[in-house]
């Protein structure tokens, strides 16, 4: 019984985090549309949102436990971090510019299909072998529901 309650609480934490994330995305899209329709520059809004995110995440180092030593930062690791930062920023900038020309509901719907697009890209770039077991499981699950 105690194991089931523990599992339920762990799943509830993940569900709560997912709901908070989706609520934040929809809220930011709505705020962006309202702010840009009043005349705020889209890059200023992005700067403010990145500043707010940094200030909210800054105290997180207090709650993190680091009992192991980290590997040294090599040029390869730093370049990968920089590339991910650049691609992430470009993703957000192009997404918000798309919201400027459409509505926040469409942006939220498109953000929900991101996992499917990631899976399609994984198939295209031949990472399909990682997903073969998952596809087999879902195939069996669908066949079970159909029969």
TrEMBL record:
Annotated Gene Ontology cellular component terms: membrane
UniProt subcellular location: Membrane
Highest taxon above the source species: Eukaryota
Record keywords, A-Z: Membrane, Transmembrane, Transmembrane helix
Keyword match Ion transport: no
Transmembrane feature ranges: 12-32, 44-63, 75-97, 117-138
Pfam family, one: EamA
Domain EamA: 25-125
Gene Ontology molecular function: transmembrane transporter activity
InterPro entries: EamA_dom, WAT1-related
Membrane topology term: Multi-pass membrane protein
Family statement: Belongs to the drug/metabolite transporter (DMT) superfamily. Plant drug/metabolite exporter (P-DME) (TC 2.A.7.4) family.
Entries under PANTHER family matching the protein: WAT1-RELATED PROTEIN
Protein name: WAT1-related protein
Lineage: Eukaryota, Viridiplantae, Streptophyta, Embryophyta, Tracheophyta
């Amino acid at each position: 019984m105690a194991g089931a309650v523990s599992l339920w609480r762990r799943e509830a934490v993940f569900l709560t985090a997912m709901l908070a994330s989706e609520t934040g995305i929809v809220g930011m899209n709505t705020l962006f549309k309202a702010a840009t329709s009043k005349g705020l520059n889209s890059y200023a809004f992005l700067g403010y949102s990145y500043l707010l995110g940094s200030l909210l995440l800054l105290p997180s180092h207090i709650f993190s436990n680091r009992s192991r030593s980290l590997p040294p930062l090599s040029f390869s690791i730093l370049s990968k971090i920089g590339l991910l930062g650049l691609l992430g920023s470009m993703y957000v900038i192009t997404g918000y510019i798309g919201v400027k020309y459409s509505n926040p509901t469409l942006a939220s719907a498109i953000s929900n299909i991101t996992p499917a697009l990631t899976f399609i890209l994984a198939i295209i770039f031949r990472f399909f072998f990682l997903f073969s077991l998952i596809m087999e499981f879902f195939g069996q699950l669908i066949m079970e529901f159909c029969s």
